[in-house]
Design a protein that fits this description.
The complex is a heterodimer of chains A (about 250) and B (about 230).
Chain A: H1 21-25, E1 49-50, E2 54-55, H2 56-66, H3 70-84, H4 92-156, H5 158-221, H6 224-250
Antiparallel strand pairs in A: 1-2
Chain B: E1 13-14, E2 17-18, H1 20-30, H2 42-59, H3 70-87, H4 99-120, H5 122-127, H6 139-185, H7 187-226
Antiparallel strand pairs in B: 1-2
Helix pairs in contact in B: 1-3, 2-3, 3-7, 4-6, 4-7, 6-7
Classes of the chains: A mainly alpha (about 250), B mainly alpha (about 230).
Keywords (chain A): Acetylation, CF(0), Hydrogen ion transport, Ion transport, Membrane, Mitochondrion, Mitochondrion inner membrane, Transit peptide, Transport
Family (chain A): Belongs to the eukaryotic ATPase B chain family.
Organism (chain A): Cyprinus carpio carpio
């Protein structure tokens, strides 16, 4: 479809060739159609008509003077005037007119509402599509707000997480410290035990050495005569013991 | 006052000024330019929907080169439909009943398609003169026949439209006269004839739309062959 662009100020300035940039720059704003924005909205419905062709304004116009029947009287009078004065002559075209009029009225009455709803549906679909885009955008933005609020709530609980982590770290440090303390204690004990054992060993060795020396010296000091005397003494003691035992046994 | 039934087809003039110019310019008035709005009123919506749909349908079988003709064919269709339908109203003059107008549409447009075909793809354009699968002995005869068929196309286009509309209008006038004359004498017969007139008017409405559509469709077909 061809659109007619009406520029205000369509003067000699615009009569140049299309290559001249100056043409567009010199278009005045307050006269061009851009100054009319925003465009006032179109009326929702067309003008009211009675009987399909006579606008309601005619009836409103005549009502103060002639009442409700005024326009009808006017119409009838006009028709009869034209017929009687033979301004309009009834001929074969009248019947052709009646016939085509019947076809038109039948068509409008039968298909009018459906065509109107069809046209409305086309427009409504357009509006619905745009509305859907708008609704989706709004829904996604609202969802974004909800998500942001949730994140903020999550952030509030963050200190609990930090406390738990801090506890964990403290525990680890404590455990580590105790382990090391334990290790140190063990090491020191080991060293000290060693020293103690060493001293014990010394003492034992000294003791054994002394005992050995004493035994050696005693053994060396036992003369053979003393040895014989001790053996004889032992034998006599044994005999005495044997006797006492026998005597105890017989009693 | 009509002298003969053919006076309705005389090109009207008033004080030497031809009225046919007004009759031809009238359809333009009836289609308002869509305003620069997103949502329009019902009339503009329907008008826009119809033109879009029609042009889409018409351009379906055409390749991209043929789409250059979209504006011409769509506007031609709207023009012819409006003129034909307006001609059905009483006391109107239908410009498409004039053979001169219809030939003025048919010959240049048909010639344009032929010249486009001959210039851009002469082999294919000439190849259309021989349908596929013809038996060999028939080829010379068929070429002659196809050439005649090609050359008669503009004549057929123009005369088809003229004849259909003229015949329809004439019939309407005749039967309406019959009703008019019979009404005082034999009212019953007049009423039956009036019924016939009603049916004929319905037919004429259909013919008006169909003939315009056929004109444009055939042109698009010729274009399809050649572009």
């Amino acid at each position: 479809m061809i659109r007619k662009y009406t520029y205000g100020g369509h003067t000699l300035k615009n009569s140049g060739s299309f290559g001249a940039c100056l043409v567009q720059a010199s278009r005045s704003f307050h006269q061009s159609s851009q100054s009319l924005a925003p465009v006032p909205p179109l009326p929702e419905k067309g003008g009211k008509v009675r009987h399909g062709i006579f606008p309601e304004e005619l009836f409103t116009l005549l009502y103060p003077k002639t009442g409700v029947t005024g326009p009808y009287m006017l119409g009838t009078g006009l028709l009869l005037y034209m017929l009687s004065k033979e301004i309009y002559v009834i001929n074969h075209e009248t019947f052709a007119a009646a016939s085509i009029g019947a076809v038109v009225i039948y068509g409008v009455k039968k298909f009018g509402p459906s065509v109107a709803t069809f046209a409305d549906k086309i427009n409504e679909d357009k509006v619905a599509k745009a509305q859907e885009v708008k609704d989706q955008a709004m829904a996604s933005l609202a969802q974004g707000i909800e998500d942001e609020k949730k994140e903020q709530w999550r952030v509030e609980g963050r200190h609990m997480l930090f406390d738990a982590k801090r506890n964990n770290v403290a525990m680890l440090l404590e455990t580590n410290y105790r382990e090391r303390l334990h290790m140190v204690t063990n090491e020191v004990k080991k060293r000290l035990d060693y020293q103690v054992e060493l001293q014990n060993l010394h003492r034992r060795m000294e003791q054994e050495h002394m005992v050995n020396w004493v035994e050696q010296s005693v053994i060396k000091s036992i003369t053979p005569q003393q040895e014989k005397e001790s053996i004889a003494k032992c034998i006599s003691d044994l005999k005495v013991l044997a006797k006492t035992t026998q005597a105890r046994a017989s009693v | 006052m009509m002298v003969s039934f053919f006076d309705q087809f005389a090109s009207p003039s008033y004080l030497g000024i031809p009225n046919i110019a007004v009759a031809i310019a009238l359809p333009w008035v009836l289609y308002p330019t869509p305003p620069a709005r997103w949502i329009n009123n019902r009339l503009i919506t329907i008008q826009g929907w119809f033109i879009n749909r029609f042009t889409n349908q018409l351009m379906l079988p055409l390749n991209v080169g043929g789409h250059k003709w979209a504006l011409l064919l769509a506007s031609l269709m709207i023009f012819l439909i409006t003129i034909n339908m307006l001609g059905l109203l009483p006391y109107t003059f239908t410009p498409t009943t004039q053979l001169s107008l219809n030939m003025g549409f048919a010959v240049p447009l048909w010639l344009a398609t032929v010249i486009i075909g001959m210039r851009n793809q002469p082999t294919i354009a000439l190849g259309h003169l021989l349908p596929e699968g013809t038996p060999i002995p028939l080829i010379p005869v068929l070429i002659i026949i196809e050439t005649i068929s090609l050359l008669i196309r503009p004549l057929a286009l123009g005369v088809r439209l003229t004849a259909n509309l003229t015949a329809g209008h004439l019939l309407i006038q005749l039967i309406a006269t019959a009703v008019f004359v019979l009404l005082p004498m034999m009212p019953t017969v007049a009423i039956l004839t009036a019924a016939v007139l009603f049916l004929l008017t319905l037919l004429e409405v259909a013919v008006a739309m169909i003939q315009a559509y056929v004109f444009v469709l055939l042109l698009s077909l010729y274009l399809q062959e050649n572009v």
